[in-house]
Amino acid sequence: MAILGLTMVLRSADIRGSAPLWLLLAAVLVQLLSWCLGYFHHPEWIPDNPQLDRMGKWFLFIGIAWWLGGRTRPTLWLWCLAMLGLFLTSITNDVGLDHWQRGLSGHRVDFGIHNAQHGAMYFGTSLLGLLAFSRRALQPGSWSILRRLAWGIALTICLAGVIVTQTRAIWLALLIALPVMAALVLVSARLMTQRLGVNKKHLVVGGVSALLVVAVLGTAFHGSIERRLGAENQVITELMDGDIDAIDPNSSIGNRIYTWIAATQWIAERPLVGWGANGRSLAVKQTEWLPEKTKERYGHLHNTFLEVLVAYGALGVFVMAALAYWVGRGTWLAWRAGAMPGDMALFGASFFIFWMIVNQFEAYLSFSSGVYVHNLIVGGLVTHIWRWRVTSSRGVALRTDEQLPSH
Which UniProt keywords apply (predicted)? Predict the structure, then answer.
């Protein structure tokens, strides 16, 4: 679907010159340049093939955006089905029900999804979506009771999932992203009434419901949350005191600190083009002073931005930053023009904050889980950005759920 979608985009005169296509080309060229130059500098560490999918797979959203056709309803259905898929996965795989039982009894679980950090990211992203689109579930109308019940159940599952996966980076990201989301809704009266269409009654009901669920789950899991937060207080204290040598490299935080320091040394040697696709593993495996246990257990840096810098240098980070800027600016402009619903723009803004934070502590974009979430959400945003660009360039009046004229 992604390849066919990309082919169809290239056939469309309206959007084939869009920034994502040029940035995809830039990503390919950056990876090729890093691979070619590596053969002259460190041929023994360069793979036989340039592995262009490392950054190229971040652009699978291009095909998704084309298939969605600039329409809101299919986008929301796609995201809802993805969340439903998460719920089904968490109970139907080999360890699903057992992990729910263990998690509810206070243990850290991962539901068989790579590790707990990745499962937590899935549930955290779903939680942001449920809150951002709560008006659609809580507003009166047909099937209102069923919609509200389903929203409440899904909210409870996501909150429980975030808690039982016990990933502090996800908790931190939500503690920052959720207040920002609330501020965006509450500060601007125009955003509430004209764009989001938020009714005070619905806002209060949604807010009270969410707080009630948080309070119940927080009380039920108070012990496990407290243990997880206090697990590495000594390491945090040593870090704040600047006593790096005293930090245990086998601890979660200590491992990250030591590998990040190693990464900065490798980045300093080749800051522009990096070390190629294997850069992240080289920074761990070939750094002599890192503990042997760290070299044996880890082959990545737990930080997306450091991994891109090590692998592809400043050029790689530039491509990433340019994509983020284009999507962010396009989301803002599409919302202002009425091509993107306000709650979708709200979700996009809060997800961006959440995504920036969690990728500081795990390299999600280097794993299939992060690539999956990134492309689903960015694809939904970009399809509306393209809708705005196409309709504005043709002078077509925007209507709700209008399809791209090029389809």
Answer: Ligase, Membrane, Transmembrane, Transmembrane helix
